[in-house]
Amino acid sequence: MQPEAIKNVAVIGAGSWGTALAQASAVAGRRVTLVCRDPEQVAEINTRHTNSRALGALPLDAGLVAALALPADVDLAILAVPAQQSAAALGVHGRMLGGLPVVLSAKGLEAGTLRRQSEILLDLVPTATPLVLSGPSFAEDVAAGRPTAVTLASPDGAMADAVAAALAGPGLRLYAAGDMIGVELAGGLKNVYALACGAVEGAGLGASARAALIARAFAEMARLVVALGGNAGTLTGLAGLGDLTLSCTSAQSRNYATGLALGRGEILVEGRRPLAEGVFTAPVAQAIARRQGVDVPLIDAVVLLLSGRAAIADIVSGLMSRPLKRED
Ligand SMILES: NC(=O)c1ccc[n+]([C@@H]2O[C@H](COP(=O)([O-])OP(=O)(O)OC[C@H]3O[C@@H](n4cnc5c(N)ncnc54)[C@H](O)[C@@H]3O)[C@@H](O)[C@H]2O)c1
Ligand SMILES: O=P(O)(O)OC[C@H](O)CO
């Protein structure tokens, strides 16, 4: 496929990330339909050209329209609902996606089934071509056109090149890559480690502890990626190091902010906080690691923290008192 053949893009999911990707695609010259669930949101986007629920007063590109369903002439779809909702959204829209390239942009692993996003897509729409978009990218930055670079991974290299070229614009640079498993895992796992880093800051444990945590998270992530057939080298790129750095150091990350609250001793009340994908992915990552026989002390620590069954001081002391091991 040539990039010029990708004229019409549909984005499923009108939250902050879906709206930001729709905006970037429109700025890149595509005709974009943002698929919403709420008729009032459709009306606001089509008349006032804002999506206030997702991105406040940010003016949206004139090439972006909203609808309740996918149009018939879509060349490329982008799925941008929370990771635990991907199967439900594909259940509604999947029959329109047969044979199409589908960009998966949620960062998370599915509870219960332990599926990655590409596995969910291929189970529900076997003829679609999956591409995974991940990397350091806050919706607010992408929507405002601030410089952002991400990875776009697919086993179909020619398709990844074409879609990267079709979606690239003045503020968004996409690097095509082949290791979809590594990129998907990196995107899901960084949210778990961002929770941990936020908790370290919230508990006042210091910047040295947070830096050590990031480095050990990188090593842990590499073990899991390799065990699942991915490439550890992928983690040196945008989806690995790039996103781990962003999410583990910035309170703008919802996962980091949630960790901050946990570290301060606050109790999480479901539905009362912004989406923090790591809360759902942590137990899934732990189950996958157990299945593969991979040692993941940091993921275990986050699962324990989220369970509310142990204080952060005890969790940290448990991590620090493990038998010493070699780094090399
Ligand atoms: N916000 C960011 O900066 C950002 C950046 C990169 C990746 N992501 C990822 O994008 C995904 C979505 O995050 P977000 O920030 O847009 O969340 P959000 O909470 O802002 O929005 C989620 C949207 O999905 C819609 N939705 C939920 N279930 C649905 C369903 N079954 N069918 C159709 N629509 C449904 C909701 O109505 C809402 O509009 C997450 O996996 C997140 O990790 C977010
Ligand atoms: O706000 P978060 O923690 O969901 O992070 C958003 C993006 O994934 C950052 O790359």
Automatic annotation (TrEMBL):
Positions bound to substrate: K107, R254, N255
Reaction it catalyzes: sn-glycerol 3-phosphate + NADP(+) = dihydroxyacetone phosphate + NADPH + H(+); sn-glycerol 3-phosphate + NAD(+) = dihydroxyacetone phosphate + NADH + H(+)
Keyword DNA-binding: no
Domain Glycerol-3-phosphate dehydrogenase NAD-dependent N-terminal: 8-158
Positions of the Glycerol-3-phosphate dehydrogenase NAD-dependent C-terminal domain: 179-316
Residues binding NADPH: S16, W17, R37, K107, A139, R254, L275, E277
Binding positions (sn-glycerol 3-phosphate): K107, G135, S137, K190, D243, S253, R254, N255
E.C. no: 1.1.1.94
Annotated localization: Cytoplasm
Superkingdom of origin organism: Bacteria
Pfam families found in the cross-reference section: NAD_Gly3P_dh_C, NAD_Gly3P_dh_N
GO biological processes: carbohydrate metabolic process; glycerol-3-phosphate biosynthetic process; glycerol-3-phosphate catabolic process; glycerophospholipid metabolic process; phospholipid biosynthetic process
Enzyme class: oxidoreductase
Keywords assigned by UniProt, alphabetized: Cytoplasm, Lipid biosynthesis, Lipid metabolism, NAD, NADP, Nucleotide-binding, Oxidoreductase, Phospholipid biosynthesis, Phospholipid metabolism
SUPFAM superfamilies assigned to the protein according to its UniProt record, in alphabetical order: 6-phosphogluconate dehydrogenase C-terminal domain-like, NAD(P)-binding Rossmann-fold domains
Functional description taken from the UniProt entry: Catalyzes the reduction of the glycolytic intermediate dihydroxyacetone phosphate (DHAP) to sn-glycerol 3-phosphate (G3P), the key precursor for phospholipid synthesis.
Protein name: Glycerol-3-phosphate dehydrogenase [NAD(P)+]
Record organism: Devosia enhydra
Chain's gene name: gpsA
